[in-house]
Amino acid sequence: MNKPLPNAFAFRGSISRRANILIGLGASFAVLLVWQVSSWDGWVDPTFLPSPMEIAQSLWSMTLEGQIVGNALVSIGRILAAFALSAAMAIPIGLLMSSYRPVNAALEPMVDFIRYLPTPALVPISIIWFGVGEETKIFLLWLGTFFQLVLLVVDDANRVPNEYIEIARTLGARPFQILVDIAWRSMLPNLVDNLRITLGWCWTYLIIAEIVASDSGLGFVIWNARRYMQTDRVMAGVFVIGMIGLVSDQLIRAFHRRLFRYLKSTD
């Protein structure tokens, strides 16, 4: 007897991975088609929103001129440096905040206060502190990521069931063993997922970081094109950032599925 097909439109229904990819590609193509037709019919002023074909032509021209690959590598390097620094600091601090209430009581008000500060407003003070070199760019990217990530780490650690902790204590485990063997291993799947999310946040601060006396990077390319109202080149630079983000996001998703095969994948 054949099993009934799952209802994709049921509340929290399921679809195959292949169908998920095809639907995503189809929806993206439909949006691009409507966008292109709108440009052909004159519904959209190309000065403010160029057509997809114009953006593609500008992207090709910029690639041949050497404006894309080198600047993309520079931006990726800055993102990775800032994100690695954020993660290296946020993970141990978040674990300490979750494990010891006095540490949490001391740090959480400051973290909550700073994470609500708008990063663009801190550009002047960052220039005063670090000048206009690479340090300022890394600092601004770190600033936009670190304080959000700390609280996500705390939340992941707090979700470890207390039963696991009590069983470990009953078996004579020491605090460090509980932290490493129980809490860390239990929270790791969620932590990797949150690292993927915060990496995306880090990319959103790239333009802010690279307009600070910069002569390289995708943010510089976009900002320079804006000065001359080259909207097609601005959109081409934005497209490159989006594609890098999409590819990195999918790579981390694939890494997550492979590393934590024992979990039921929902993405």
UniProtKB/TrEMBL annotation:
Assign the protein's first listed, main location to one coarse class. Answer: membrane
Tell me the domain of life.
Answer: Bacteria
Q: Where in the cell is it found?
A: Cell membrane
Read off the InterPro entries from this record: MetI-like (IPR000515), MetI-like_sf (IPR035906)
Read off the Pfam families from this record. Answer: BPD_transp_1
Q: CDD domains under this entry?
A: TM_PBP2 (cd06261)
Spell out where the chain crosses the membrane. Answer: 21-38, 79-101, 113-132, 138-154, 195-214, 234-255
Q: Does the keyword Membrane apply?
A: yes
Q: Where is the ABC transmembrane type-1 domain?
A: 72-252
Protein name in the entry: ABC transporter permease
Its keywords, alphabetically, are: Cell membrane, Membrane, Transmembrane, Transmembrane helix, Transport
Q: PROSITE patterns from the entry?
A: ABC_TM1 (PS50928)
Membrane topology value: Multi-pass membrane protein
* Family membership: Belongs to the binding-protein-dependent transport system permease family.
